[in-house]
Amino acid sequence: MKEFDYIILGGGLSGLTLAYELNKQGCLENKTLCILEKRKEYSRDKSWSYWDFENNKFPNCVIGSWDTFSITLNQKTINITCPQSPYRTIDSKKFYDFVTDQLRSNDNIVTVMDCTIQTIEGHAIHTNKGNYVGKVIYDSLIDLSHQTPTMYQHFFGCEVETDNDCFNENIVDLMNFDCSQDGGLHFFYTLPFSKNKALIETTWYSKIIKKKSEYQNEIDHYLREKNIKGKITYTEYGAIPLNLKKTNKKSNSSKDYIKIGSAGRLTRASTGYTFQAIQSFSEQLAGNLKLDRNLTVPNIRHKKYDFLDEIFLSVMEHEYKSMPGIFFNLFKSNDSVATISFLSDRSNWIQDLKVILSMPKLIFIKNLILHIYKKIIK
Ligand SMILES: Cc1cc2nc3c(=O)[nH]c(=O)nc-3n(C[C@H](O)[C@H](O)[C@H](O)COP(=O)(O)OP(=O)(O)OC[C@H]3O[C@@H](n4cnc5c(N)ncnc54)[C@H](O)[C@@H]3O)c2cc1C
Q1: 262 in ligand 1 pocket by Cβ < 6 Å?
Q2: Distance between alpha carbon 194 and the CA centroid of its chain, in Å?
Q3: Superfamily of domain 152-241 in the CATH hierarchy
Q4: pLDDT per residue as tens digits for the range 210-248
Q5: pTM higher than the cut 0.85
Q6: Can you identify the CATH homologous superfamily of domain 2-61+92-144+244-292?
């Protein structure tokens, strides 16, 4: 058994962010850390977007930054400005390269690539590359064998490079609902990196994940409809479980076995956004460790969001055809600061109230009652 003070299971966004923070905050000066990652090497596989309240933490990894985004429904478009918290996109490959470069300078950090974790027994980790034991384990692996999430945010995106200028590089098309809503909430999402290069995604919220060819057909149809002709330079796919429950032992964090990332339920259930929560969680976790060497797990999201999101997800599941109008109205009738703060876990009670009051009362009360009923009969 190879022994370490800390072991991180999975060197994805949360694993690498935590390692970066532990290193940056000086927690690894006389402690050892091992990261176990199944990929052979890192490549671009995700584009992480978020409203940035943090003053651009990874400037060299940012590939897009916008002060305006739009929402479209029934041919009506509203533009929303957010200069105080711009919408930014990080290229995952740039992030992986930047963080792994930083980690290489510390001899107390070992990263084992091409290493598949096979079984976990307490703090003993068995892999195809030998066995490891850690005093503290940070686990970013999602184990769906004990539960089935009822809702996913699932999407497929293509980066298109065109010969002609096709995109307005100043405005992110955050949600364009003018598309089929059969079987779930559906919208197109466009990140315009320049006038002739954009990442276009078809995004669904539903219980059932589609075949890749179906998403591809949707994108092809959208490109034809918008008369966008060009070459596809990159694709990405995701299916994010939105309501992971605390069911089995390992999905709950214990003092020295801590779930992180999406597996640690850092994904915002109503939106799928996770990036900012992972940053705050990792900064605070490393800060706690540095300050008093204790293993306090930060609680970075107020419980009110979990409660409100459960009702929101219930509406999304049962009344998905109303959702485009609900989202459109949410952005139209609130000031951008309130809405963005709410969606980014940073709203105060006044902003919460504004957001709640802009929701259709009957639908939400009905789903609140349904939610309470389900809790009682459980
Ligand atoms: C395509 C995509 C785009 C996204 N875009 C956004 C966005 O724009 N904004 C946002 O806020 N969130 C976004 N998300 C959600 C979330 O931010 C990401 O999923 C993020 O990567 C979650 O980080 P994580 O560390 O929990 O998981 P991951 O980054 O997936 O890391 C888990 C790691 O564990 C490794 N692993 C898995 N199984 C094993 C095993 N058995 N042995 C060893 N290693 C293993 C994987 O290879 C991976 O590297 C996106 C998700 C996807 C899939």
Answers
A1: yes
A2: 24
A3: D-Amino Acid Oxidase, subunit A, domain 2 (3.30.9.10)
A4: 999 999 999 999 999 999 999 999 999 999 988 776 544
A5: yes
A6: FAD/NAD(P)-binding domain (3.50.50.60)
